[in-house]
Amino acid sequence: MKPRALITVFFVFLMIPVCFLNAETLETLTNRAFPKPRMPEVPFLHDRHNENARIDDCTLCHHTYENGVRSDESSEGTACAECHRPALHPRGFNLAAAYHARCRNCHLEQKNGPVACGECHRRR
Asked: What is the DSSP-derived secondary structure letter of residue 60?
């Protein structure tokens, strides 16, 4: 077989499926911010979740505050742990509290989505 034909076959049968599999990446809400995590990380299909939940406003989760007032600017590209560090919020809205309040409370309000610990924190 000619080299060009081999490259074409390789591309069609191997590369195209890879592109489709990566069309939506599996994002993981990591627990690296926790020195001794007690629960496994949470797999999160960001785009699929937002489509299914009909979420168009990114600032619902990717929010910013100025002088204690929520702004219209998005915090996309900034790790949640940068603002929700335990050192900044020793008794308040640290990272675990932020995830649980944002995710779990929304699922409870919508009466849809996982709310029990093991439904999100699954062992792999």
From this structure: G
